[in-house]
Design a protein that fits this description.
It is a multi-pass membrane protein. It is found in: Cell membrane. This is Sodium:proton antiporter. One of its GO terms (molecular function) is antiporter activity. With 442 residues, this protein is mostly helical. The chain has one domain. Helix 5 packs parallel to helix 13, helix 5 packs across helix 14 and helix 10 packs antiparallel against helix 19. The radius of gyration is 22 Å and the shape is globular. 51% of the residues are buried.
Length: 442
């Protein structure tokens, strides 16, 4: 009996070789980016397909299988009900974003903020507008693209450091990436941990609120020349209704698919009423929005299959054992989760994929050490989003750096919010607050 327990304990340590497919993917991704000078030259889908192909060719010596059996494992992993639900939500979120843009909801949110922006609080005001916009849109790249021209104009008129205003925009963009109900990172974090968006939001907002407050205070004391932003900013409060519906319905705990569909149809009716599009054009706009999420949906399925194969090969058990072998407390488990998703994000420059890949392992760690799933989801989202906003080779800094004509590296020190997210995240782990509510959903 004792021998069997020792054998099981040893087998639970897993095998490092089971991580070879993931290591090859990360090496290919990093080397391609470093050699070519652009990390976008290695498409994530191609890299994951290569890693998946390698995993299919490998076999566990302790449990040998045929290729056909490993293909079945891959398909079952990619077809997990949690992943498929995530894919559906991704597609609906894409449709919602497309419809909201088509009926000018994005412009209304931005212009509303600009119309009430006090000239003596222009920098904190820019951050608040960015937070509202990113929370409404659920996309950091969309926020950067929308606000970058305004930030550059502010820097020109005030003589403010252009790298600073770029850092403000990127920080605000990561606020929404982390907290928005329609952000793909929120969808990934909540689905991998099988919890509701409402519970994750409650734990997450308490975790990052100090970072928001500190960042605003710092921006208030940045010396700049007081100016008025020129231009006329038109907005229609009715156009903001779809965003308000999504936020309110999510906060009261309505099922996420119902929330997304309600938002889409609200945008459709308002757009048709205002003549922004016809019913045929609406369908095309919604379809184009869905297509914008196709890559993310397919990558999520491929990652699910790859993780299933690495679990069979012993890689997941090895990683879990390595991360937790000296961990005795929930605090150590939380640090392991933060380190895991941060390293994944640094390697892939994609916070959503980092969460999808790290999520199953994080769930195992949280169960082992009694960490609430909502807190685990928050840690995954906070650290992946924070690091994604600080990587000079990630899309956010590359885009705004190119638009502003400055080096992405020069923007990094001025993305105070992302830096503060990491600091308050570590403090949250140290003090064990907020605990989060452990309510799972199917």
């Amino acid at each position: 009996m004792q021998k069997n327990e020792e054998k099981n304990k040893t087998s639970n340590k897993g095998k490092f070789m089971g991580l070879v497919p993931l290591i090859i993917f990360l090496a290919l991704y990093m080397l391609t980016g470093l050699v070519s000078g652009n990390f976008e030259n290695m498409p994530l889908m191609i890299g994951i397909l290569i890693a998946s192909g390698i995993a299919l060719m490998m076999s566990n010596k302790d449990n040998p299988t045929k290729l056909e059996e490993r293909v079945t494992m891959f398909c079952k992993g990619g077809g997990d009900h949690t992943l498929i639900l995530m894919v559906i939500i991704f597609i609906l979120a894409g449709a919602f974003h497309g419809v909201a843009s088509g009926m000018n909801a994005v412009d209304s949110v931005t212009n509303l903020g600009l119309s009430v922006l006090p000239s003596n609080l222009i920098l904190p005001g820019l951050f608040i507008i960015g937070c509202v916009l990113s929370f409404s849109m659920g996309t950091s790249m969309g926020t950067v693209a929308a606000l970058a021209p305004l930030a550059i104009d502010i820097a020109d008129k005030t003589g403010c450091n252009i790298a600073l205003v770029c850092g403000i925009v990127v920080g605000a963009a990561m606020f929404g990436d982390n907290l928005s109900f329609i952000s793909d990172t929120t969808i990934a974090a909540t689905r991998t941990q099988e919890i509701s968006m409402k519970d994750k939001f409650k734990a997450n907002v308490l975790m990052v609120l100090p970072a928001v407050v500190i960042n605003l205070i710092l921006l208030v004391f940045v010396p700049i020349d007081t100016v008025s932003i020129s231009g006329s900013y038109e907005y229609n409060l009715i156009n903001i209704i779809p965003y308000l519906l999504v936020i309110v319905l999510s906060l009261i705990g309505i099922q996420v698919i119902t929330v997304m569909v309600t938002g889409i149809f609200a945008g459709m009716f308002i757009g048709l009423y205002h003549g922004d599009f016809t019913i045929i054009e609406f369908m095309k706009i919604a379809h184009d929005g869905m297509r914008g999420m196709e890559d993310m949906a397919i990558i999520a399925i491929l990652v699910g299959g790859l993780v299933a194969l690495m679990k069979y090969l012993g890689g997941i058990d090895w990683l879990l054992h390595t991360l937790t072998r000296k961990t005795k407390t929930a605090r150590g488990g939380e640090l392991s989760i933060a380190a895991l998703v941060s390293l994944m994000d640094i390697s892939t420059t994609n916070n959503t994929i980092s969460i999808i890949a790290a999520g199953p392992l994080a769930k195992d760690i949280s169960d082992e050490f009694g960490i609430s799933r909502s807190r685990t989801a928050s840690l995954l989202d906070v650290f992946s989003s924070a690091f994604n906003g600080l990587l000079p080779y990630a899309g956010q800094l590359l885009v705004i750096g190119g638009m502003a004509g400055v080096s992405p590296v020069s923007i990094m020190p001025y993305n105070w919010y992302s830096i503060l997210m990491i600091v308050v995240g570590l403090i949250s782990i140290a003090i064990g607050f907020p605990k989060g509510k452990d309510v799972k959903v199917n």
